[in-house]
Amino acid sequence: MTSISYARHGFPPAVIQHAVWLYLRFCLSYRDIEDLLAERGLDISYETVRRWGAKFGPRFARELRRRRPRPSGRWHLDEMP
Fold first, then answer.
1. What is the mean pLDDT of each run of 10 residues along the chain (81 residues)?
2. Using CB atoms within 10 A of its CB, is residue 53 exposed (0-12), middle (13-18) or buried (19+)?
């Protein structure tokens, strides 16, 4: 798998990854993410977050699904008091 290139995006990869992670992990709108980043002093428009989600989102989602533990045939039940 080739690494993701963040060249010519104007923001550090950590900021881009965090914005896309917020969008994929939580049920937030692009404008909600824009507001969250603005609270942290980052002036990023919702349209930029949308473009990052369209460009990097599928690869991030694939990686998150790949890391998720696989279900097994064994069940674990909690004890009830």
1. 76 93 91 96 95 92 84 80 64
2. buried
